Each structure stands twice: as structure tokens, then as C-alpha cells.
């Protein structure tokens, strides 16, 4: 009798829980942090770097193939308009939900004066660094995002995952060009990139074999670094910020359990629990890596192979989503801005909160899909409503954990929109064999 294979998502969960246990054990036993940094962290770094390594070529190849297979530029225009429109809609909804829950719970009023002063003093240096980065973004000009979208050197852009929008821009141009030239002249190019795409997908299979070990290393390192030299002190700070953290998690939970199922119901009538089972490897990796860009190859594989979204849709919608659709990040920015105002005793008017919605929407588009990018954009959101950027110190302590959670929402939102757009393009999801969703 053949031995039953353990599903990949279960292996990842085991790695995650083992990393949590080992990280806490190391912290309380006083195991030198250097041991974790020298012998465990590199495993996680190798895993994340492996995913980032294939992100750019995967986006380039799959997007070119997807557009070339559309057969019509008007179809691309129609699909692009729907994609961006839905992304902006979900972003506005997420920020609105964040503002609603933070105004209802008012977590800022749970922070004592002493805790506030301690946090402001403890993280003053980190706040200054984030403020400097935000200043550079502000001084770049209102049209700088459009300038940054066009690469001066596509090879150089392809070597930087932070330049994913440049790769998308080039791939869209190349795909459109392939549609405009005689088919026989572009056929060899299409076959080349199709072959590259298949090779990358096979490499993803190889990388995912070490995913449980990579997740274990990432979580162990995160716990050890978070605990620092005094685990009890870290827990006290997190306890003081518990109301804020739970407010963010409540907002993120509403997005995952209510908003996205609503979109699926409206566009596809697809069972959300089956959808969840189909993308859970991507969600678990998003939680572990805190990076939408690093998770992108796995997200594309789950959406195409499990949820059966056509390649022409997924190859366009998902890379674009990993670049501009940050629902979890924008929700967090709304909650964080109001929380800081509450903690500092500042009252925000309705007009100021509307300004937060507008600024956070624009900031989420410019927020790179890498860990901690949302914190820099938050400085801009704070200053748009005259909240001192120094208040950022109040939320730095739990940010690493919350960043993991909001990245899960970002990735889930991308997958949801891909199914919605595919449905509007005439794809029928009623024939999906849901039993395949539990097989890895």
C-alpha cells in the first residue's frame, strides 16, 4: 500500500509552528542570537532569494505570453480597465473598513502616558530613518511614479524586484508589439517565452520542496529578533499595543472573510472555502515572507493550476496586483494613522479622514511589495493630515507581525480579483474539481 503523501500546505504549517516553538524556546533559554543569525536565518534567506530570483523572469515571460495570446489589443484594454478599476475599489473599501473599526474601538485611548513616552524614546532612531525615506519620495514630484514606470534599461530593471512595474510596462509593450506584427514573424518569440515560462514553473516546484524549511527558518529568526535580549520586555510592549494590533487584525479579517467572499459571489458564485483551499500555499508563504513580490510565483501557480484561471488573465492581473494592489497595507495605514492621532490626543475631522482615504489609496499604489515598505508610505499619510511623524514609534514594535498578516490580505486580494476579471472575460468556474484543491 502506497504511503500517503503529506500535502505541501500542511508541511508549511508544520514548519511555521516549529519555527514559532523553537524561536520562543531559544529566547527564553538565552540561546545567543548569533547562533540563529549565523546558522538558521541563512536558510530562510536562501528560500526567499530563490523566490525573488524567479519573480522577474516569470512576470516578463508570462505577461508577454498572456498578451500575445489575447489576439486583440482591444481585449487587453478592456481587461486592463476592469483590473485597475476593481483594484482601486477594493483599496478604497479596505481603507474605509480600517477607519470604521479604529473609530469604533478607539485603541489609542488604551495607551498610557508612560508607555507612549517610552515608545517614542525607544524607536526615535527608526522613525527618523523612515521619515528620511518618505522625504525623498515627497520631493520626487507628483508625476514621478509615471517616470519610474518607464525603464531606462530593461536588463537593469529585471535585476531589481523593486522595479516590477517597469518590467510590467516593458512586457505589456512587447506583448502589444507581438499582436501588431505578422503572426509568423512573432511566432518564434512567443515560443521562446512560452518555453521560459514552463521552465520557471518547474523551478517553482523545485523551490517549494524546501518551503517548510525556509518557513521554519524565517519564523524562528523573526521570533528571536522580535524578542531581543529581553523577551519579557518585548511581551510587555506588545501587550500594551494589543488593542491596536487586534483592531488591525479585525479589519484584515473583515476583508478576508466578508469583502473578498462578496466579490467572489458577485462575479463567480465560487465557494470561498474552496478558493481558500486553492491559494493557501501562497497565503502561508505571504505570511512567512511578508513580501507580495516574493510570493508572486507561488500565487500565480496556485491561481492557474488550482483555481484554473486562464494564463492570459493571471499573467496580467497578478503581477499588476503585486505592484499596485495593497489592500492589507492600505487598511493598516488607515488604522495606524487614526490610532496615532488618538494616542497623541489629536482629534481628526471627517475631512481629514477622507484625506487619509485618498492619500492611503495613492500611497498603496506606490508601496513596493517588500517587507516594511508600508511603514515609509505611512509617514506620507500621517503628514497629509498633520499628525507628527514621530508618532510612528508607537506602532513599530508589533509591525513585523502585522506586516505578515496584511501581506496575506494583499495576496488574497490579488487572487480574488484575478478570478473576478476571468469571470467577466467569460471563464466558467463551475467545472472545477474541488477535490483537486486539497491535493498538492
UniProtKB/TrEMBL annotation:
Keywords: Cell membrane, Glycoprotein, Membrane, Symport, Transmembrane, Transmembrane helix, Transport. It holds the Pfam family SDF. GO terms for molecular function: symporter activity. The keyword NAD does not apply. InterPro entries: DAACS, Na-dicarboxylate_symporter, Na-dicarboxylate_symporter_CS, Na:dicarbo_symporter_sf. GO terms for biological process: dicarboxylic acid transport; L-alpha-amino acid transmembrane transport. This is Na+/H+-dicarboxylate symporter. It comes from Aureibacter tunicatorum.
